[in-house]
Amino acid sequence: MANEPKRETVLVVEDEEAVSYVIRRCLETSGFAVIEARDGETALKLVEEESPDLILLDVKIPRMDGFEVCRRIKEDLRFQHIPILMLTALTEQDERVKGLDLGASDYVVKPFNVQELLARVRTTLRRSRADLDASPLTRLPGNSSLERVILSGIQSRQPFAILYVDLNGFKAYNDHYGFSRGDEVIRRTAKILQSAVLGGTDFLGHVGGDDFVVVTTAERAEPLCKDIIFRFDAAAPGFYDEPDRRRGYIETENRQGARQKFPILSVAIGAAVNRDGHIASLGMASRISAELKSFAKKNPGSSYVFDRRHGPDRSPPG
What we know:
By secondary structure, the protein is an alpha/beta fold. The protein has eleven helices and twelve strands.
């Protein structure tokens, strides 16, 4: 069904095929989507590609142990919000504590009871959703996490940048193709942004609707704007049916009820760079970045606009 909610995805990282099979059957029959990795390097690759909702991670796996996989995920700002359940046959307390210290949410000792495992998965996901205020559509961190990151940047007194990303023409697209297609565009946009941001340096949040926010370094702000625009413009025609793609527009009613032609979706980015500490509060950060985004939306096609008062007047699209 078109409106069926997206199943939550669990990445199972387990090198023992028999154990992995039992876990997969348990999760799939309970309504979860399951992806699997047999080693640490493959696990990290799947995290990049799939951004799962939860990771079941065995400690003893080849090509990078579970502790190192956990450490790398929790040091990556793009994926550190993903909860990790450690699977271990180890009974020593210090080994269990090590995983928790690295950022794991909980652990399960093998051999395990499948019902207990399932209960821990569900409980961890509920707790994660509440803690992160995550978007149910994209699974990206929401406003609470974004506020913490911006406050940390302000308090550090180091230069940083806030990129407010919005889609031009999204309401018309939704009206023309329906909410299901619109939701898919939002998910695809989230993937595009995830592929552009830099793990360990950049933060990406989904604050609702077609609005996303990236927090990055001052130096990366402009190259990142250009990269986001390049990636989005390359993907946007694929959101449309062939006749509309050939025409280069859709025709639907505007907010005043009149028929209007709307071009292929584009992206508007307002970039507020805090080089001299002029952004001193969350309210100021929100106000400046939203104002700049509004300026960018007035330009045809994809564009980005920097803070005129504390940077270049306007950077042309890359």
